[in-house]
Amino acid sequence: MTSKPTLDDGLRARKRAATQAGLERAALALALEHGYENVTVDMICDAGMVSQRTFFNYFGTKEGAFLGTPPPMPADAELARFVHGTGADILGDLVGLITAALVDQEPDPGILRARRMLIERTPELLGRENTRVAELEESLTLLVLDRFHAQGRTEESTPDLEDEARMVVTLAGSVMRFSMQKWFSGGFAGTPSELLRHSIALVRRITGTADPAPRG
Amino acid sequence: MTSKPTLDDGLRARKRAATQAGLERAALALALEHGYENVTVDMICDAGMVSQRTFFNYFGTKEGAFLGTPPPMPADAELARFVHGTGADILGDLVGLITAALVDQEPDPGILRARRMLIERTPELLGRENTRVAELEESLTLLVLDRFHAQGRTEESTPDLEDEARMVVTLAGSVMRFSMQKWFSGGFAGTPSELLRHSIALVRRITGTADPAPRG
DNA sequence: AATAAAATTACAGTAGCTGCACGCATACCG
DNA sequence: CGGTATGCGTGCAGCTACTGTAATTTTATT
To answer: Which domains does chain B have, with CATH numbers?
Structure first.
């Protein structure tokens, strides 16, 4: 219209964001009401007032509208901070890193909660979610290896260092899944940080050599 | 034909088993050659000389032909042995239990290996595999809880006992995934038992309070 | 040999998804 | 302000996975 048409990030970008958000909200609402399997892409398109073709241009897949934007890699600054961390609690540090990346991803907590509830009750979505996470695991493994090297550990002194790195990532994934389930099922009264520490403590209790049984 | 037509398990059952095995073999061979995504159900049906409808009668899903029969719960005897185990190494015991159930499932090691190779390189199949495993997790959690109770641990003395049980199952799943990947990628020279013990040792090294760094 | 039960099949239809080409809105430039 | 390039939404035709149904064939029973 005026000589300065691009206010926010360009009118185009705003419209895109709006329709995308609308579609995601419509998808979640429909699925929470009728169940994921009974929601058709055409229904979401009707609610979002776009053609089916446009829907697939946005999400590529039906599941995409329900899962939201994929988890991003953390910013370089955070990565560096992790790599040069103290080293005492690598599992806690990694879990913290992942959590931070997840949190500032979806600003609306209502959407986030609805999404988690739906994913928990829908095996198909849960599986796809795990697949997405698995796609990040390789780069996270490299990150953990970097940290090992920064701590002076080498493949020479520890032949299975790469295995260890992969296992660290795997364990972090377990802790995240466990914690998310407990958090969004409402079974924990406390802060997310407390929950994560609780989960990690649980891991230690289980793997702790032979101390699980109570004294009495 | 004769007065005793049912030799093995009935001619019907044998034919069923034969066509099913044929379809599974055809599916694996085609996918290893052309890639999972480029194999169509019709191709498999042609190779197996059945109609598409019959294919879906057998497997219900395209993925089903590649994943094989779902993992079964172990026999009651094994379950009892687990529940009344010594208690020192619950993670090892559970991993052993799962492994045993997997092993006597697919007698042909060639098929098993081909299947794993395909699953590893196909995210969609990997995700579905994990979903299948997740379906067993609930009953495994109950099993672990039984063992806790058999050891005299109660929810009264340990309020988060159920959490601990769920975490044990989650960790066992991590160990299994890690080990399977390493095993079938050929990166381990040794027996499966050794590999499993190695993996669990890795978990302990990581979670061990503050011992991961070498002295030097 | 007659009959019951079970397996296989063809057929029609739905839903997810893709390539392609066309039209229109937006952004850019003189 | 007008012209133009670019991006985006859309319709359409088509492929593949999957399902219900009813008919046909194959195996089991008596």
So the answer is: 11-66 (1.10.10.60), 76-207 (1.10.357)
